[in-house]
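Anyone able to model this chain together with ketopantoate?
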Amino acid sequence: MSWHILGAGSLGSLWATRLSRAGVPVRLVLRNRARLAAYQAAGGLTLVEDDQANLYPIVAETADASTPIRRLLVACKAYDAEAAVASIASRLSAEAELILLQNGIGSQQEVAARVPRARCILASSTEGAFRDGAFRVVFAGRGHTWLGTSDESHAPAWLDDLTRAGIPHDWTTDILTRLWRKLALNCAINPLTVLHDCRNGELANHPEQVASLCAELAELLLTCGQTAAAEGLLDEVQRVIQSTAANYSSMHQDVAQGRRTEIGYLLDRACTEGHRRGLALPRLTALQARLKETLALRGLPTD
Ligand code: NAD
Ligand code: KPL
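re: yes, here you go
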């Protein structure tokens, strides 16, 4: 059974190349004919791993192709996922399963609402990848991917494909806890790295700011019923700051490269969820306002 991969960017290419080299059939779904022509000219996707570059001539098509889609990895940014899935919705077979890699809270739910008959599997990944050229991806950080559904259903048999491809993963019955925890980590770290224009490790020089944000985020998680996600949040944030000290956060990278950020599904979502429940969240709200100011000053979307 073929995997279709929608969004041949960093993470989509990282999955596509590893699946393909393990002998799993993969098809890329590209945005339009111009992208398809550029891809064909490149001869495939290149994965750079441990300084070794390998080219994988994976089959590609556009959204308007006619092959039915049974298993779809959605690897677009959070703000693009719903429209991208809408563009292939008519090709989804009756048993279609979608694996949603989007960061934050809200985008995966938008996709699930758009294709209510499909089985949507939510994923939370700590792997790291970036593009260093057209159709080239650099595997930058080993990590783990957690997969699960919001109704806590059984693990699919195709997880074996991930094992064969060497993609470290686990099935979990508490994927929402993982997603909320990651949202909190990203809200505590990413915006501050943009405002201080620094690597993750330099946040160790702002311990009060980090601690007060974590206190509000933990309060938010508890109010949202995410008790497990709130436990030991500050300790984990401090550990991530140490263990990723030399890295720039994904939001910092987006801003530095003039790309839209995923603020709408991270900090905005956290503030909205809190305000809806009557929480004031003064520090998170002030952080949100300062981040939006910075984005606007750079001419970037503030949502
Ligand atoms: P990316 O920008 O590198 O790739 C997204 C790709 O989707 C782009 O190639 C874009 O052209 C494509 N796309 C957008 N709309 C499309 C459409 N309608 N049809 C076809 N293709 C379309 O993004 P990324 O870094 O791979 O991130 C994807 C998601 O994974 C994000 O939510 C991100 O937060 C999450 N994530 C990324 C990493 C990482 O290391 N890159 C790690 C963990 C989670
Ligand atoms: O996930 C991350 C990101 O940059 O988006 C963290 C955990 C902050 C590591 O950089």
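Residues 185-186, 189-190, 200, 240, 244, 247, 249-250 surround ketopantoate (ligand 2) (CB under 6 Å).
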